[in-house]
Amino acid sequence: MKLLSLICMLLSFHGFAQRPNVLYIMSDDHDAQAISAYDKSLLQTPSLDRIAQEGIRFTRCFVGNSICSPARATLLTGQHSHKNGVRDNYTRFDSSQLTMPKILQQAGYETAVIGKWHLHSYPAGFDYWKILPGQGLYFDPRFINMQGDTITLNGYATDVTTNEAITWLRQRNNSKPFVLLLHYKAPHRNFNPSLKFLEQYHKKTFPEPATLYTDTAGRGSAWHIQTMSILRNMKLCSDLKVDPAYLQGDADNQPDEGEIAYYHAMMNRIPEPDRSRIKTIYAERGKQLQQLRPRGNELLKLKYQWYMQDYLACVASIDENVGRLLNYLDGSGLTKNTAVIYTSDQGFYLGENGWFDKRFMYDVSMQTPLLMRWPQQIRPATTSTMLAQNIDFAPTILHITGTPIPAAMQGKSLVPVITGKKPDLKRPYLYYHYYEYPQDHTVLPHLGIRGDRYKLIYFYTVNEWELYDLHTDPREQKNLIRSAKHQSLVNRLKKELQKLRDEYDDHEPAGELN
Ligand code: SGN
Ligand code: CA
Fold first, then answer.
1. Would 211 be classed as within a structural domain?
2. What is the pTM of this model?
3. Which of 200, 292, 408, 436 could link 88 by a cystine bridge, Cβ 3.0 to 4.6 Å?
4. Looking at ligand 1, which residue's alpha carbon is closest to its atom 19?
5. Of 393, 425, 457, which residue is a domain's last?
6. Does a cis peptide bond (omega within 30 degrees of 0) precede residue 255?
7. From ligand 2's centre to the CA of 368, what distance in Å?
């Protein structure tokens, strides 16, 4: 009641019409390295770069738990996983909780979510929603609509999701400001690109990351146990689309029946004539394997290139569609009064450590891209190196819309930073806690803190600590936990970790961490 009357007061103060709109775009598993505003070595993303050029780019934005459903629950609640209850991809989000869209709706905003949802309960607090069931499909995706019906929309998921968003923008209630959450399925595994971009990207060769061929020697248990290795765990058929026919007689790479069935089901979803053309491109991979019979690092070298070709072609489609959205905003006169946010649910390994997937608290997967444009509020081409986190997204969106932020939200509004009022929120450490084990990639549960220079990680089920100096070792290759000269630092960081656990009210695992 108190919150409501405060909102009403604010409304009469600001007036309805001038309040800004928010277009929040989140893709799935899009690593910052695959955005040219961050790194030009892999591909060009002119539309995403446009958001950065006309707004702000955060170079140190991180998540609190690097997988999908937890990141989405954090977006809605502004809370870490232990508070909103979604610690892993298998937990249903309790939609009776107070969320950012519910608050916005009460404040007179028109709210919508279109695309990937992955929270197992239906959306609440939205005037409109149309979501992908589970992970969603790349070709002719199914959507669940507000009537609870599952319908199939023809086309490529990234294009179709954008079409749906533009249709909603056209038809929405114009008398209200809007907040639209647009969640792409791409570039999530199995990285199925459209023909248009596969034709371009399958011809390219990409630079290899410095740690592609690193092995697990001298590493802790978590490195040994993980199953996210491109060489060992990425499947030739289902991930890299090598036609099983080409693997006949190759004893080491023989796919099992399930994989073969998956390959055919995946290909059969692609409409003709694109399917035949796509199969021809993938057949070239099969022919190369037949000819070369590569093993070990030679096989990894090929798999990495194929992985990048598919993944980056999926990203190219996102960039094209973000361009369509920005053009729509321009053409409809919405650009000036609409804040545009682009991010991902977390980062993703693009071959570093020889890996794909995410989950680890190491920077590659803990980092997420964050670009924001808000004309007349954010100075163009600004960069922020401040530590930001996905718990901040809900408070930031509320603040942009002039809506009070409830105390239960654990993040901070980034508005003072993006508008240049405050360069820094003075939060020296970010908190992290990952839980999901053993699915899907046997990454051991861990928690820790990330500061400006140091990162402390605790794999508590095996009682192993790691310490990294991010200034001297940004790739986190040298665990300093036993280094004599770092012992007083370790003790200090353990206290900081305990302090943050208390502050965020996280009591798992119980007791002192030692
Ligand atoms: C699938 C993927 C995993 C991925 C999870 C979670 N395997 O299970 O690689 O980690 O989704 O992804 S796949 O063979 O089905 O592609 S998340 O984005 O939902 O967290
Ligand atoms: Ca994801």
1. no
2. 0.95
3. 436
4. 68
5. 425
6. no
7. 10
